[in-house]
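Lab notes, practical 5.
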Amino acid sequence: MHIEAIMRALADPTRLRIMRLLSAMELAVGEMAQVLGQSQPRVSRHVGILCDAGLAERHREGSWVFLRAAIGKERGNPVGEAVDRLLATAEREDADFARSCEDDRHNLAAIRSARESSAEAYFARHAEDWDQLRQLHSPDQLVENRLVAALGDAPLGQLLDVGTGTGRMAELFAEKAERIVALDKSLDMLRFARAKLQNLPADTVELVQGDFAALPFTAHTFDTVLLHQVLHFAQDPSVALTEAARVTCPGGRIAIVDFAAHGHEELRERYAHARLGFTDGAIYTLLTEAGYVPSDPIALEGGELVVKIWLGTRQGAPASADEKSIKRKIAR
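Output from the prediction step:
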């Protein structure tokens, strides 16, 4: 970050408002224009200046471009942290600026409502299929409780939720992890997850479009990697686990929640399952070949489909705090 560019970028009331909005949640450019009551081209110009100064950053999901703040404590950049504190202090001390920010946040309610309505419509279109699948396996609450217990009280650190789907796992572990990156290949599922997670602090969860066969992150970025009911979609599970291992810090952990091997062939056609569950031996081989040390599997009975939790620890000495900080900066 260059201080001259930062000061020039902040020398505009609209851009100050944009930065305070981004401290609350990620927003698409069109959503930002709606909140600010300005044209999208004008807002895009302001956004370009903020991004050039390193204060904000764009990421694309299909035809949509989302914005997130590039400052804050989790970024490990002292100048960015100082700017973040300055803007928060300005909102507390400057009455006119505070009113503008309050009006903008009030307008965010319409954005949140639109996202939730869209998510509910998507869920309604697919709810029957999902409900029928749920009836075949252990209750979700039981699975979640056992997963939380299996990961224990050890810090989760930087957590990658691969195939986040509805965002439930990110929501479940938001208070336990230092930060969560929720990844999914489906734009529809990302929009669903965004609606579910939009009330969490903006610096807690980041949503990313990507494929588990080619994760868009640098090596050794995450302390915990979670694949919850996603590995059975992999044509080649070894590729997915090799990628997971690549982005896991030495000493970090992986948790796989999926079905034990079964014979429900109809799941291939109806739900696009590429694999009909996994044996313990198959997962053991996949984990060890990827560079993890497996733990004993956990079985959750209570349905025609048995859900299992497989854990593994990445081989190698854990990275130091300084090494992790450097890698996270590079990953961004």
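Observations recorded by the TA: The domain at 136-331 is CATH 3.40.50.150 (Rossmann fold). The two ends are 13 Å apart (CA to CA).
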